[in-house]
Design goal:
Length: about 110
């Protein structure tokens, strides 16, 4: 099992659309942590802020690390903080914090440039 720390709240706009696109967005996986990870007091305050959520998924940290990959264009310019994003509306409709691989596949949106 692994735990995904996901941004659930939008950040205020900086006024610069290009900079805003490179910031984490709702549905972006911020961190992938091992099963059994227990947040420290400061991490708990950070996660408990309402900006973040934690979901448990089957598999290892290595299997889910790709969700942290940035979206990069052909010239190597970072276009977005993450290439993949979880669809939080679908995740909320599932009403769970413990997901199967099939459920994660159903809520993931691939933002990659092809």
């Amino acid at each position: 099992m692994a735990q995904l720390v996901i941004r659930v709240a939008a950040k205020p706009s900086t006024g610069n659309p290009e900079n805003d696109a490179r910031r984490s967005q709702p549905g972006d996986v911020i961190e992938v942590l091992p099963d059994g990870w227990v947040p420290s007091r400061s991490e708990n305050k950070f996660i408990g802020s309402g900006d973040w959520g934690v979901v448990v998924v089957p598999g290892t940290v290595a299997e889910w690390e790709y969700l942290r990959d940035p979206q990069i264009d052909r010239d190597g310019k970072v276009l977005a903080k993450r290439r993949n994003r979880l669809d939080l509306v679908t995740a909320v409709m599932l009403g769970k914090t413990d997901y199967t691989r099939e459920e994660i596949a159903a809520v993931r949106i691939d933002k990659a440039i092809r």
